[in-house]
Design a protein that fits this description.
This protein has twelve helices and 17 strands. It has 318 residues and is an alpha/beta fold. The protein folds into two domains: 48 residues, no CATH class; 266 residues, Metallo-beta-lactamase, Chain A (4-Layer Sandwich). The strands form three sheets. It has an eight-stranded mixed β-sheet, with no helix packed on it. Strands 9-10-11-12-13-14-15 form a seven-stranded mixed β-sheet. A hairpin with a 5-residue loop joins β2 and β3. α6 packs parallel to α7. Bound molecules: zinc ion. Zinc ion binds next to α5.
């Protein structure tokens, strides 16, 4: 009897252990899905909905990757297109490699702010290697080899191209409000600053946090955008035109009143961007600056529950 009792107890104990073990596995699995900071799966997205914006360190140029809480992926500009060896030597990313490393195979939308090579160049390999749902363009054409190649690929692949202008609202998911602030109207000029002023500028609002992606706009466009008044006040500003002193119109910066600014710029670049005057203007406004030449890739996470619900993570801490 006592022997039977012992065996029964032992059997029950094994069963209890098994149930406990299975429960533990379930708990660990759920923990990994929900709490693991690296996890980007569905469970994590629905419980911790953040808008993610990566300012990719493409050297002298812009490339901004936007991932929405509901899993849509958008790219604003692609940086320049240079050989891999050059990029490695200069310590900068090629956007197609960055997207691959982020396990991205499809883009829901691609914005090309304007046609200069430090924005358009990297788009060409992206179009060749990735599925792109649609492209948002500035309303003009351009007469360069890169533009011709771009135009040919788009036609061959039959990619939908939308010409956008100030006042348009982009449908990037109902949790995110995206408005086009610039350009006001098409300009046919090929003059350098005119092309910059044609840049698509986007205002992104997620919850209580606004981010202004200003392309390469210069003072003319900065003045134009000021007509939106307080509506363009933003917590975060992608500093226009790599911090050039043609794009640091003080009333504009004071109106935006950004708490944080991101300068996408190449190390020791030939243009000497950013300019000391632009840096001092941002400092006077109280904007804390992040720079891709110093911080590497700059990643912004926006929760949006209140105006301070955002955080930056950088590759290199100074
Ligand atoms: Zn540029």
């Amino acid at each position: 009897m006592s022997r039977y009792g012992y065996e029964q107890k032992s059997f029950q104990s094994k069963k209890t252990n098994f149930v406990f073990f299975m429960l533990l596995i379930v708990v660990i699995f759920v923990w990994a899905l929900v709490l693991s900071p690296d996890h980007g799966g569905l469970v994590s997205v629905s419980l911790n909905p953040e808008l993610r914006i990566d300012f990719v360190n493409v050297g002298q140029g812009d490339a901004v990757l936007i991932r929405t809480p509901k899993g849509k992926v958008f790219l604003v500009d692609g940086g320049v297109n240079v050989p891999v060896a050059d990029a490695r030597r200069e310590g900068r990313e090629l956007i197609q490699n960055y997207l691959r490393n982020q396990k991205i195979s499809k883009l829901d939308g691609l914005v090309i702010t304007h046609w200069h090579n430090d924005h358009l160049g990297g788009i060409i390999p992206v179009l060749r290697l990735f599925e792109v749902d649609k492209i948002y363009e500035t309303p003009s054409t351009f007469n360069t080899e890169a533009w011709q190649t771009y135009d040919e690929i788009c036609k061959k692949e039959r990619i939908q191209r939308l010409s956008i202008k100030a006042g348009d609202v982009l449908e990037w998911g109902n949790e995110l409000f995206v408005q086009v602030l610039n350009p006001e109207k098409p300009v046919s000029s090929k003059e350098y600053s005119e092309v910059n002023n044609m840049s698509i500028a986007l205002l992104l609002r997620y919850g209580k946090v606004q981010t202004l992606l200003a392309g390469d706009i210069e003072e003319d466009a900065e003045r134009e955008i000021m007509k939106y008044g307080e509506g363009i006040r933003s917590q975060i500003l992608k500093v226009p035109h790599h911090g050039a002193d043609t794009s640091d119109y003080m009333p504009f910066l004071q109106l935006v009143k950004a708490e944080a600014g991101v300068i996408s710029v190449g190390r020791s670049n030939a243009f000497r961007h950013p300019s000391p005057r632009a840096l001092s203007h941002h400092e006077r406004v109280g904007t804390k600056l992040y720079r891709t030449d110093r911080h590497g890739n700059i990643r912004l996470f926006i929760g949006g529950k209140d105006t301070r619900d955002y955080r930056f993570v950088v590759d290199q801490r100074l």
